[in-house]
Amino acid sequence: MANPLRAEVLRLYKNLLYLGREYPKGGDYFRDRLRAAFTKNKSVNDPEKIKEMIARGEYVTRELEALYYLRKYRAMKQRYYNEE
Protein backbone atom coordinates (compact mmCIF):
# COMPACT_ATOMS: atom_id res chain seq x y z
CA MET A 1 0.00 0.00 0.00
CA ALA A 2 1.33 3.45 -0.86
CA ASN A 3 2.31 5.65 2.06
CA PRO A 4 -0.24 8.48 1.50
CA LEU A 5 -3.07 5.97 1.26
CA ARG A 6 -1.83 4.13 4.32
CA ALA A 7 -2.31 7.26 6.41
CA GLU A 8 -5.85 7.66 5.05
CA VAL A 9 -6.69 4.04 5.79
CA LEU A 10 -5.39 4.30 9.35
CA ARG A 11 -7.35 7.52 9.91
CA LEU A 12 -10.51 5.82 8.61
CA TYR A 13 -9.93 2.76 10.81
CA LYS A 14 -9.43 4.87 13.93
CA ASN A 15 -12.47 7.00 13.16
CA LEU A 16 -14.66 3.93 12.61
CA LEU A 17 -13.29 2.31 15.75
CA TYR A 18 -14.20 5.44 17.73
CA LEU A 19 -17.71 5.58 16.23
CA GLY A 20 -18.24 1.86 16.84
CA ARG A 21 -18.14 2.28 20.61
CA GLU A 22 -21.81 3.30 20.63
CA TYR A 23 -22.99 0.75 18.07
CA PRO A 24 -26.40 -0.73 19.02
CA LYS A 25 -25.15 -4.34 19.00
CA GLY A 26 -22.16 -3.43 21.14
CA GLY A 27 -18.67 -2.11 20.67
CA ASP A 28 -17.07 -5.56 20.71
CA TYR A 29 -19.33 -6.77 17.91
CA PHE A 30 -18.51 -3.72 15.79
CA ARG A 31 -14.77 -3.91 16.51
CA ASP A 32 -14.61 -7.59 15.51
CA ARG A 33 -16.43 -6.95 12.24
CA LEU A 34 -14.32 -3.87 11.51
CA ARG A 35 -11.09 -5.77 12.12
CA ALA A 36 -12.27 -8.64 9.90
CA ALA A 37 -13.17 -6.25 7.07
CA PHE A 38 -9.82 -4.46 7.18
CA THR A 39 -7.88 -7.73 7.50
CA LYS A 40 -9.72 -9.22 4.52
CA ASN A 41 -8.62 -6.33 2.30
CA LYS A 42 -5.10 -5.79 3.59
CA SER A 43 -3.51 -7.46 0.57
CA VAL A 44 -5.05 -5.03 -1.94
CA ASN A 45 -2.31 -3.01 -3.67
CA ASP A 46 -4.19 -1.20 -6.44
CA PRO A 47 -4.45 2.50 -5.47
CA GLU A 48 -7.78 2.95 -7.29
CA LYS A 49 -9.32 -0.02 -5.49
CA ILE A 50 -8.03 1.30 -2.17
CA LYS A 51 -9.58 4.71 -2.88
CA GLU A 52 -12.91 3.01 -3.62
CA MET A 53 -12.74 1.16 -0.31
CA ILE A 54 -11.87 4.38 1.53
CA ALA A 55 -14.90 6.06 -0.06
CA ARG A 56 -17.08 3.17 1.08
CA GLY A 57 -15.67 3.45 4.59
CA GLU A 58 -16.41 7.17 4.66
CA TYR A 59 -19.97 6.39 3.57
CA VAL A 60 -20.29 3.95 6.49
CA THR A 61 -18.95 6.69 8.78
CA ARG A 62 -21.65 9.12 7.63
CA GLU A 63 -24.33 6.46 8.06
CA LEU A 64 -23.19 5.70 11.61
CA GLU A 65 -23.23 9.39 12.49
CA ALA A 66 -26.78 9.67 11.11
CA LEU A 67 -27.82 6.59 13.11
CA TYR A 68 -26.49 8.07 16.34
CA TYR A 69 -28.05 11.46 15.64
CA LEU A 70 -31.45 9.89 15.05
CA ARG A 71 -31.16 7.76 18.17
CA LYS A 72 -30.41 10.82 20.30
CA TYR A 73 -33.22 12.78 18.64
CA ARG A 74 -35.73 9.99 19.33
CA ALA A 75 -34.66 9.79 22.97
CA MET A 76 -35.08 13.53 23.44
CA LYS A 77 -38.44 13.48 21.68
CA GLN A 78 -39.70 10.71 23.97
CA ARG A 79 -38.55 12.61 27.06
CA TYR A 80 -39.95 16.02 26.26
CA TYR A 81 -42.97 15.51 24.02
CA ASN A 82 -46.04 13.61 25.09
CA GLU A 83 -47.75 11.78 22.29
CA GLU A 84 -51.46 11.83 23.05
Describe the fold and architecture.
The protein is mainly α and 84 residues long. It has helices at 3-19, 27-40, 47-80. It is elongated, with a radius of gyration of 16 Å. The relative contact order is 0.13.
Sum up the structure in keywords:
mainly alpha; single chain; 84 residues; 77% helix
Order of helices and strands: HHH
Query: If you compute it from the alpha carbons, what radius of gyration comes out, rounded to the nearest whole angstrom?
Result: 16 Å
Low-confidence stretches: none
How would you sum up the major sheet?
A: none
Rounded mean pLDDT is: 87
Structural class: mainly alpha
Shape: elongated
The count of DSSP E runs of length 2 or more, i.e. the number of strands, is: 0
Helix content: over 70%
How many helical elements?
3
**Beta-strand percentage?**
under 5%
Distance between the termini: 58 Å
Question: Could you provide a short overview of the structure?
Answer:
The chain is mainly alpha-helical and 84 residues long.
SSE blueprint:
Blueprint: H1 3-19, H2 27-40, H3 47-80
Helix pairs in contact: 1-3
